[in-house]
Model the fold of this input.
Amino acid sequence: MFKPKAIYYEKEIFNYPLGRELMKKYEEVNKFEIESHNNIEEMRSNPNSEFANMKRNLIIGVRKTHKFVENHKTSDFLVPYTSSGCIAACMYCYLVCNYNKCSYLRLFVNREQMLDKIIKTAEKSENSLTFEIGSNSDLILENTITNNLVWTIENFKNTKNGYLTFPTKFDMVDPILPLDHQGKITVRMSVNPEEIINRVEFGTSRLQGRIEAINKLKEAGYKIGILIAPIILVDNWKELYKELIQKLSQELSENVKKDAFFELIFMTYSYVHTKINEEAFPNAINLYNKDIMTGRGRGKYCYKKDVRDEAEIFLRDQMHKYFPNNKIEYIV
Ligand code: SF4
Done:
C-alpha cells in the first residue's frame, strides 16, 4: 500500500468530493499548499539523484486542459485523464521527459468533468469511438489510491458509441473484476522478459503477476491487448524475447489466446533519461548503446534501421510460431 511521504495540493481540490476524500484518507501525511501542480519550485530545484525520492510524494490538483489528441493506433483519441506520472520508475519512461514536472504522480480530482467530456463526445458521434485514457499514467496503479478506475467503468458503461482503453504494467486488477463493464473496456497489459522487468522496470508488477492478471481480466469479460513493450535490445535479447513469447503461449488461457491482439514497440531513449538514470540509479544497466542506436532529433535515440529490421523479422517469426491466430496491430 502506497503511503506518500508528503502531499502537495492546490487549494481548489477542496471543491471536489475526491479532493476532500483524499485529504481525509491521508490526514496524517505532511501537506504543502501549492499554486499549481505544473510548477512546484521545490521539485524543480531538486538534483537528479532525488528522482526516486520525489516519486514518493503525491501531488493533487485540478486538471485544467482537456484537449483530446487524435490517434490512429488502438484508439481514436488520447485523452488527458485522472492522473499523470507514476510512483514506479521504469528507466525508459517517456513521462520522464521533464522529470521536475511530469514523472511523479499527480492526481486530478475533477474526474466528473473529464468523464463527462468523454461521454458527450462519444454520444454525439455517429460512429463508435475509443478513448485512450491511460497515456499519461498507469490507471491500475492509480486505482489503488483513488478507486478512479472502478468509478470510471461504473459511470461509463452505458455510454452509447463509446469505448475506453488503457495500458498497464500492474497486476492489481481484482477491484475491477466484478464490475458490469458492458464489454466497453480494453485492458492492454504490457509485458517484458522477467530479467528486463527486474533490471529496468523498477516498482512495477512481476511478469507472472501480469500474466495471471490478463487471464483473470479475460474471464471477467474484458477485451485484452498485449503490449510487448518496450523491446530493449540488450545483449541476449533474442533468447529473452523468445522465452517471453513461449511463456506467454504456455501460460495465457485459451480464452485469451482466442482473440487477444498484440502491439510491439521498440524502446526509444533520450539524453535526459541517460542523465537522470546515471545519477538516480548509478548501479543500474545503461540502456543507451551507441553501437546500435542512432539520434532521432532533439536528444532522442532509437535503434538503427538494420538492427531494428533484424529484430522485427525475428519477433514476427516467433509470434507467427506461438500466436499464429493473433493479430499484431503494429510494430513500431
Ligand atoms: S509504469 Fe508506466 S508510467 Fe509508471 S514509470 Fe513505468 S512506464 Fe512510466
Remarks:
- The CA atoms of residues 49 and 133 lie 31 Å apart.
- The two ends are 35 Å apart (CA to CA).
